[in-house]
Every structure is written in C-alpha cells, then in structure tokens.
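Below is a filled-in request sheet from our internal design queue. Each sheet records the structural input a requester submitted and the sequence that came back. We keep these sheets so that new team members can see what a complete request looks like end to end.

REQUESTER: design group, bay 2
PRIORITY: normal
MODE: inverse folding
CHAIN LENGTH: 122
BACKBONE (tokenized):
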C-alpha cells in the first residue's frame, strides 16, 4: 500500500510562488512514475509534470518554464515549484505515483494523494 500526502498549497497573489510537497509512505514507488496533476470543478484532471525512473521530466505546455518537478528519493518527497502564478492556476493539485517506470505523462496512476488547494488572486 502506498500513501501520498500533499502539502504547501494556499492562497497567493498572481505573480507569486509556491512549492508543493508530496510525502510518500508505505510500499516504495520512488523508482516508478511520479507526477503532479490539477483539477478544477467541472473539468477533467490534467497532468502537469511527471518524472520517470531515469529522472527525466515532462511538462504540460501551458506550465513549462513556470513549474518545476523534482524529487528527493532519500526523503521520499516529490516537489512542485510553481513560479509566476496566474489566476488560471487556481485548482486542486494532486500528486500521484505508479509502478510503471516510463511513459509517465498521462493520468493512468494507481496511487493518488488527497490534494492541496492552490488559489491565486489577481
């Protein structure tokens, strides 16, 4: 069993920054796909950034250059640095993990956190 717990969300003004964290516990999935996703009410969950077992990253076009995904394998924490926040970044942000090692840029993940809310005011 894998448990993921996100933190770091909050309310911030446009142009600001946040760093989201996702702490993993239980069975290790640190060598598999990990990613960050977001969802707003009435819309499908979208993939933002993923990191595979080789450490290679992929980003959604709309966030590339502003979002940075990283992970600390020793601490079993996944991070998402969000800079230059925009109003349209307002959403619930989720982390997820999977035992797949590659082809991570999708939403087909087995393990999900409960989410952390990010609200951006203009």
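RETURNED SEQUENCE:
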């Amino acid at each position: 069993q894998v448990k993921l717990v996100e933190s770091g969300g909050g309310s911030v003004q446009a142009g600001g920054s946040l760093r989201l964290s996702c702490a993993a516990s239980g069975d290790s999935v640190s060598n598999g796909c990990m990613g960050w996703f977001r969802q707003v009410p009435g819309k499908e969950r979208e993939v933002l950034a993923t990191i595979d077992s080789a450490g290679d990253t992929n980003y959604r076009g709309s966030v590339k250059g502003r979002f940075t995904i990283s992970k600390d394998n020793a601490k079993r924490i996944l991070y998402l640095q969000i800079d230059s926040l925009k109003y349209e970044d307002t959403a619930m942000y989720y982390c997820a993990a999977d035992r797949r090692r590659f082809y991570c840029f999708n939403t087909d993940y087995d393990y999900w956190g409960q989410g952390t809310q990010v609200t951006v005011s203009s």
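SHEET NOTES:
- Residues 59 and 95 are 14 Å apart (CA to CA).
- The mean pLDDT is 95.
FILED BY: M.R.
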